[in-house]
Amino acid sequence: MSTDAYIKSVVTMRDAFSTYRTSIVGGDVPSRFSHCAALIIADDNLADIDILLGKLVEGTDVWLITPLSDLDSVLQSALIGGYSQVHFLGHGASGSITLAGRVLEIYDFSRHLFDADGDLVKHPSLYFWSCETGKGAKGRRFVDGLSRALGASVAAFSGTVGDSKLGGSWRPDVVSVDISSIPVPFLNAKEYPHLLVADVFSLTTVQIAGGLEVQIRATAATTINNIKINFQYDTALASIVLATLQSGTVIAVPDIGVAYYGGFISVSNESTLGYIEIGAVSTGFLDITAGQLLYTLKFAYANGVNAFSGGLASGTYLKLDTTPVSL
């Protein structure tokens, strides 16, 4: 997907009487239509997403999430906006869901308990259409903890979501005790030919003085000798300060090569404002473990700003020689 595709905001009224669909850029979150009871918040980089979103239960809004979406504003608006159901569509792991490269855990949802006036509001039922979000003890705590914190029904999957021929399902199997039936908003779900398996990378943000760090990690064990990271961010909110390797070695921005583990050489470049590229290649091989930290990007907030919007852009990959790694 091109940079222009990420930064443009296009509102499409597919059905003036049922569905409102928009790409969320920054904190520009639309007010809901009062006649819509349900909301889908979807990662717009999912494979063939239009198959799932092309036919929905009547009365369902859609918000598409990109790396430039302000997810804090999105969650706040969704959870206190008066919807009876909010469905999250993305990649998952035990106890979390990933939207546009950002990993969301229980705290990211449970802290949106109050409206702008500080009043406790009634929250919608939450449905996580993402692989393994409800898996294991951590997934169970995620579902039960959210249900208790929000006073709402919560449902997730312990296994994979998607095409049954590939081992997937569209029936959440980890649910809070008060759910008797699970509404599936995607009327074309059985036609979807993929699984919503985890991304190659996960992103974690850490607040620091005057800004934040973005930690880029691999999501599973693999062997590679070729890395390319494309990261896009909103320059109105923050500026890149530096990039560091897993070892702590600093990569200057832009254009400097530094030794990496396993004989890797990493080169960073910010040829376009708001878009940083880091490439790394090696004649040897690097064995990556699950959850391994690859890079840390440090950003400084703009004056008077305490928000950030960014994420991995298209062209990002791990490879073994010329073969992309599928995780």
How is this structure best described in words?
By secondary structure, this protein is mainly β. The chain is 12% helix and 41% strand. The protein has five helices and 23 strands. It has helices at residues 3-7, 49-53, 71-80, 106-110, 136-150, and strands spanning 11-15, 19-26, 38-43, 60-69, 85-89, 91-93, 96-99, 102-104, 125-129, 154-156, 174-175, 201-208, 211-218, 222-233, 238-245, 250-251, 257-259, 265-272, 275-288, 293-301, 310-312, 317-320, 323-324. An eight-stranded mixed sheet has the order 1-2-4-3-5-9-10-11, with helices on one face. A hairpin with a 2-residue loop joins strand 22 and strand 23. It is globular and about 55 Å long.
